[in-house]
């Protein structure tokens, strides 16, 4: 469940384990555990009924030492400032692990877009952007899609910002439709990065990805593309669940057919190519790879003991609580953490921003080639650190990230 519990506290626990091992000095520790800016706005919207509703929105710029804040905007009823702050911190570490010149940001609006009309969502998007307009910009803070926001929402963000500044500014937001300055391959980039991490994990574990079994929780932009690309590498995706239900086929699921089904029915539930499966049961399956690609706090002390997967590739942000993660690590489960595993998305966003600023657009093959290079490099750096410090991949990813952000913080010095 998103917004539940102390998510920022979980981020701090992860941070502390790494910072302790690095002997991080207390001053830098304090800076890196404090959000730079937290913005709270009220967005009044006239609903289709004629009623006026006021929605609360947040934008957090956690750290901008490496460059403009970068991170998505989510629309969800359970959004909280605590959650958005944790997500903005994770973006900071993710950009640093991926070696892209961005800081970390995140936005969220408390709303339930599944119960809103297209016009209401558009009005809310435009008003939210107008409320945070002074804080965002191609050199300041660059939003992107996240849970329940998509290319259309990004187009409205770009348009609203452009109307305010008086010219078309494509680099204000990433994840745009390709015809509006979006990048080829961006939509698939997060799932592609997850696939690359699963492939690299298999190589490290000396497992054959061909024929390996995979379970995917969540079939949105991340889960569906991960499943599709892994099945193209001849892995057997045997189970998929989403917000409504799930489907299991012990041989394998026909992912292209499942994607067609979801286009029509908006859920994997009821797909005729397998048996029904509950969201709880997907965690109990004896599979090689488990890919949580939904929301935070999915793997907890309540279900960690049921998990039989050999490796977990975190497509979502924060799907595993710190105490559950410790148990998995002690049991020898290889966990590729969110700040590495789903970094393909923001890396694709970086490529989009670069193309917007150059006004020169790359082929999809070029985007995928550069993404492959960045992901393999990031995976390699984290694995090397994990082996050197004899720690799990999450702690190692934090060590890599903290080291990079701490280095620029020391170089830049204090302005006071
Ligand atoms: N929302 C995505 C994430 O959590 C992408 C962020 C971006 O591209 O800026 O990584």
Descriptive labels:
single chain; 416 residues; alpha/beta; Rossmann fold; 7-stranded mixed sheet; 5-stranded mixed sheet; 13 helices; 12 strands; 17% strand; binds glutamic acid
Mean pLDDT: 97
Quote the distance from N terminus to C terminus. 41 Å
CATH superfamily of the domain at 189-341: NAD(P)-binding Rossmann-like Domain
Order of helices and strands: HHEEEHEHEHHEHEEHEEEHEHHHH
List the total number of helices.
Answer: 13
**Strand segment tally:** 12
Shape category: globular
Give a quick account of the main beta sheet: strands, pairing sense, barrel closure. 7 strands, mixed
Q: Beta-strand percentage?
A: 15-25%
Notes on the structure:
This protein has 416 residues and is of the alpha/beta class. Among the domains are: 34-170, Rossmann fold (3-Layer(aba) Sandwich); 189-341, NAD(P)-binding Rossmann-like Domain (Rossmann fold), CATH 3.40.50. The chain has helices at 7-21, 26-32, 81-97, 118-132, 151-165, 186-204, 221-232, 255-265, 322-330, 338-341, 343-358, 364-389, 393-412; strands at 37-46, 52-63, 69-76, 103-110, 141-145, 213-217, 236-241, 246-248, 275-276, 289-292, 311-313, 334-336. The chain has a 7-stranded mixed sheet, sandwiched between helices. Strands 1-2-4-3-5 form a 5-stranded mixed sheet. It starts with 6 loop residues before the first helix and ends with a helix. The model has no long low-confidence stretch (mean pLDDT 97). Bound molecules: glutamic acid. Glutamic acid is lined by residues 70-72, 144, 146, 174, 317, 342, 345-346, 349. Glutamic acid (GLU) binds at residues 70-72, 144, 146, 174, 317, 342, 345-346, 349.
């Amino acid at each position: 469940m998103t917004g539940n519990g102390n998510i920022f506290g979980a981020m701090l626990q992860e941070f502390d384990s790494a910072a302790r091992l690095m002997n991080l000095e207390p001053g830098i520790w304090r800076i890196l555990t404090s959000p730079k800016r937290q913005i709270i706005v009220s967005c009044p919207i006239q609903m289709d009924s004629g009623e006026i509703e006021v929605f609360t929105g947040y934008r957090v710029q956690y750290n901008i030492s490496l460059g403009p804040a970068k991170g998505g905007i989510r629309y969800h009823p359970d959004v909280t400032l605590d959650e958005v702050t944790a997500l903005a911190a994770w973006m900071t570490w993710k950009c640093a692990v991926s070696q892209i010149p961005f800081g970390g940001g995140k936005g969220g609006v408390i709303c339930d877009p599944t119960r809103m009309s297209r016009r209401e969502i558009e009005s809310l998007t435009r008003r939210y952007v107008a409320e945070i307009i002074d804080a965002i910009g191609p050199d300041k803070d660059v939003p992107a899609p996240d849970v329940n926001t998509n290319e259309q929402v990004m187009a409205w963000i770009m348009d609203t910002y452009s109307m305010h500044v008086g010219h078309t500014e494509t680099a204000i937001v990433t994840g745009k439709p390709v015809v509006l300055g979006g990048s080829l391959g961006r939509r698939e980039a997060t799932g592609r990065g997850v696939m690359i991490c699963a492939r690299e994990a298999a190589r490290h574990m000396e497992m054959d990805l061909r024929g390996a079994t995979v379970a995917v929780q969540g079939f949105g932009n991340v889960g569906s593309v991960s499943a599709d690309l892994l099945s193209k590498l001849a892995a057997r995706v045997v189970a998929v669940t989403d917000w409504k239900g799930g489907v299991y086929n012990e041989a394998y699921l026909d992912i292209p057919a499942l994607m067609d089904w979801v286009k029509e029915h908006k859920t994997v539930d009821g797909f005729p190519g397998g048996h029904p499966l509950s969201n709880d049961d997907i965690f109990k399956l004896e599979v090689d790879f488990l890919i949580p690609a939904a929301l935070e706090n999915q793997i907890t002390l309540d279900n960690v003991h049921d998990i039989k997967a050999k490796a977990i590739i975190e497509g979502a942000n924060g799907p595993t609580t710190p105490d559950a993660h410790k148990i998995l690590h002690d049991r020898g489960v290889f966990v590729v953490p969110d700040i590495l595993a789903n970094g393909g998305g923001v890396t694709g966003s970086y490529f989009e921003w670069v193309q917007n600023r150059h006004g020169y657009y790359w082929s999809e093959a070029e985007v995928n080639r550069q993404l492959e290079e960045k992901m393999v490099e990031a995976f390699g750096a984290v694995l090397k650190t994990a082996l050197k410090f004899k720690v799990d991949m999450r702690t190692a990813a934090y060590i890599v990230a903290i080291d990079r952000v701490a280095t620029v913080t020391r170089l830049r010095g204090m302005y006071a």
